[in-house]
């Protein structure tokens, strides 16, 4: 029987494992704390008896993903990480610096199955889901490399988090746990293309996280072209799920809207989006498109971005334009993994 990786164990699973070793359950909390302080060697866990350390070394280990590549922006201090997993797949994460501290942006899948026409993450499809331990490992590796605790975590890297639902929920719990990262749910954001059944399920989890929905269009005609998922979950059904989420959680939803030249950035689109979202507890995050080699889409002109923003604001829709970060290091999700995978 092979050794067990304790990084992927919940607290309950750790307690069960220690019981099998003939050890008291309270040791699980001690080990859990050490793991999420970033320790991987049992000898470093100074409150464990030597006998337990010996048992752990013979039957368990604590994995740690490796930094395969690292790129630091000269513009704003953003750092892009490419991590190598145990099976040699690679995933991307980003560390962003703000006045309040650092935010870790992590991936939930290797690749992405969603097929969004403008996105680099989805080229080549999805390879597999990440375990919640692999998601946590991205945060731990960023913290260790930065010598700084993450203040916020956003699950906005490669992949559709809600298609990896069970692992996502375990990851959110460990982020929030006082024994682990101790990050408040309101400092955690999950981004989705709009998987309606899981939006409903998430609303019932009693986790007051921030939900960001990738909308990117004001109507089905445009969204069908940009986001194949819209053919399964069209806009009005998606908005009904968002309303349900807002009512259940009392939380505002953010709608992500990538502005693409002459596709979804017209003044008519802005008016239509305003009408679509009126009276909804929401915020719109306008994102000048990150161009991807090989597709036909270009980012909107800055003056058009301002016009679009102004129309939404004038119609009473809370709106901001996302500040571009790490543009000199391909910091948008999927760009680096794609470039490295095709070499």
Fold blueprint:
Layout: E1 4-5, H1 11-20, H2 26-35, H3 50-59, E2 60-61, E3 66-72, E4 79-84, E5 90-98, E6 101-105, E7 109-111, E8 126-129, H4 132-146, E9 150-155, H5 165-176, E10 188-192, H6 196-203, E11 210-214, H7 220-226, H8 235-249, E12 253-259, H9 267-277, E13 282-288, H10 302-314, E14 319-321, H11 335-341
Parallel strand pairs: 1-2, 6-9, 9-10, 10-11, 11-12, 12-13, 13-14
Antiparallel strand pairs: 3-4, 4-5, 5-6, 7-8
Helix pairs in contact: 1-2, 4-5, 6-8, 9-10
Characterise the protein shown here.
The chain has 343 residues and is an alpha/beta fold. The protein folds into two domains: 4-61, DNA polymerase, domain 1 (Orthogonal Bundle); 66-341, Aldolase class I (TIM Barrel). The protein is built from eleven helices and 14 strands. It has helices at 11-20, 26-35, 50-59, 132-146, 165-176, 196-203, 220-226, 235-249, 267-277, 302-314, 335-341; strands at residues 4-5, 60-61, 66-72, 79-84, 90-98, 101-105, 109-111, 126-129, 150-155, 188-192, 210-214, 253-259, 282-288, 319-321. The strands form three sheets. It has a ten-stranded mixed beta sheet with strand order 3-4-5-6-9-10-11-12-13-14. A two-stranded parallel sheet has the order 1-2. The protein has a two-stranded antiparallel ribbon with strand order 7-8. β13 (282-288), α10 (302-314) and β14 form a beta-alpha-beta unit. It is elongated, with a radius of gyration of 21 Å.
């Amino acid at each position: 029987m092979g050794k067990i990786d304790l990084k992927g164990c919940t607290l309950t699973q750790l307690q069960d494992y220690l019981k099998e070793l003939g050890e008291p359950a309270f040791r699980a909390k001690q080990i859990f704390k050490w793991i999420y302080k970033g320790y991987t060697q049992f000898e470093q866990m100074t409150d464990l008896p030597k006998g337990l350390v010996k048992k752990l070394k013979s039957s368990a280990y604590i994995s740690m993903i490796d930094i395969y590549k690292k790129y630091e922006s000269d513009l704003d201090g953003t750092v892009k990480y490419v991590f190598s997993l145990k099976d040699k797949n690679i995933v991307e994460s980003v560390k962003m610096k703000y006045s309040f501290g650092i935010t870790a942006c992590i991936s939930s899948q290797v690749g992405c199955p969603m097929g969004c026409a403008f996105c680099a993450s989805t080229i080549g499809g999805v390879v597999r889901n990440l375990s919640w331990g692999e998601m946590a490992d991205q945060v731990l590796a960023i913290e260790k490399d930065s010598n700084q605790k993450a203040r916020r975590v956003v699950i906005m890297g490669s992949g559709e988090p809600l298609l990896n639902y069970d692992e996502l929920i375990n990851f959110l719990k460990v982020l929030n746990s006082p024994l682990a990262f101790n990050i408040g749910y309101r400092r955690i954001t999950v981004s989705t293309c709009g998987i309606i059944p899981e939006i409903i399920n998430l609303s019932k989890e009693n986790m007051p996280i921030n939900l960001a929905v990738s909308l990117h269009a004001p109507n089905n005609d445009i969204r069908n072209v940009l986001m194949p998922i819209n053919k399964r979950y069209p806009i009005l059904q998606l908005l009904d799920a968002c309303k349900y989420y807002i009512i259940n959680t009392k939380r505002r939803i953010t709608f992500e809207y990538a502005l693409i030249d002459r596709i979804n950035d017209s003044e008519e689109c802005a008016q239509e989006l305003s009408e679509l979202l009126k009276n909804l507890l929401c915020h719109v995050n306008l994102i000048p498109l990150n161009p991807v080699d090989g597709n036909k889409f270009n980012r909107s002109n800055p003056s058009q971005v301002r016009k679009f923003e102004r129309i939404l604001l004038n119609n009473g829709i809370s709106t901001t334009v996302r500040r571009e970060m790490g543009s000199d290091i391909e910091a948008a999700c999927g760009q680096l993994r794609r470039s490295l995978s095709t070499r």
